[in-house]
Amino acid sequence: MTRHRLAVVITTLTVALFACGSGYGQETARTSRAYITNFGGDAISVVDPRDAKLVANIRTGGKPHGVAIAPDGAAVYVSNEADGTLSFIDPVKNAVTATIPVGKAPHQIEVSADSRHVLVALNGDNAVAVVDAGARKMIRTVPVGRAPHIVLRSPDGRHVYVTSEGDMKLLALDAQTWEVVGETPLLAFPRVVAVTPAGDRLFQTIRWLNGALVIDPAGRKVVDRIALGEPKFAEEGKDAHGLAVTPDGKELWITTQTTDEVTVIDVATLKPIGRVKVGRDPNWVGFTPDGRLAVISNTGSGDATIVDVRGRNATGTVKVGAQPKRLAVGAVNAGRGTNN
Known about the structure:
Elements: H1 3-22, E1 30-38, E2 43-48, E3 53-59, E4 64-69, E5 76-80, E6 85-90, E7 95-101, E8 106-111, E9 117-122, E10 127-132, E11 137-143, E12 148-153, E13 159-164, E14 169-174, E15 180-185, E16 190-195, E17 202-206, E18 211-216, E19 221-227, E20 240-245, E21 251-256, E22 261-266, E23 271-277, E24 282-287, E25 293-298, E26 303-308, E27 313-319, E28 324-333
Antiparallel strand pairs: 1-2, 1-28, 2-3, 4-5, 5-6, 6-7, 8-9, 9-10, 10-11, 12-13, 13-14, 14-15, 16-17, 17-18, 18-19, 20-21, 21-22, 22-23, 24-25, 25-26, 26-27
């Protein structure tokens, strides 16, 4: 090997080692983060679930309600119910890069599988707003019945599910045309909906039931019910609320506000197989992409509980803001710094 070629090789290796060791090039490394909306204020909290610590508080707008992470990890979106707006967040800088008007009382939001569109349930406009994420503008609204609350993408990206509180039904939208292609009568006031990774089952919490409905999305009908014991019918505001299926599809976790705990359900048998004590009035639950940790927002105690999924035990509590509600957990292009 000539001296010139040897010098090039040494220089290349030196640059590579420097980049790995110094943090250069790591500012966009994919990192697990939890984004929690603090409905009692004007900010969201960013939590590192692995270390159970607060990374940042980011001001977005009045009564932040819904939150979603783009599948490509490049952006986070937050709906501000009091302001009727949608905020765009850069997860590297932990900062809002834009805020646009979308409509009355925006609730939960979702991002399309290709990260190109953001769907916003407009509870006060009886519609779902479709936002072009790149252009940062609303391109259309889709009528979906009275008081839409939750928007959820199917695992294959072909459909978007929307709960209509006022009409007591679950709608399915085509993710290409954004048109309503089907609906499932619920005969009850819907809370939150979750889906298995295979997309073959939906789980829906409803008002006053301490449990959830089981829905066949293909047949668009309720096929079973999960009842968590006493009280089967909870007092108003103390229902089973948030729920999510583990990434491996084996367990359904339901926040049960009547007992300040999370109940773990076997998806195959629909029977309870465990419980985890968390904070007061648990609202929402999400999992890290590897399925090792769960994050639960506790509205009554103003904090988030980090849970070891396999051991079903709380490993940490992180103080966040006032009335934390929705949360999104996922891999983002997160920076190393904080912005408290």
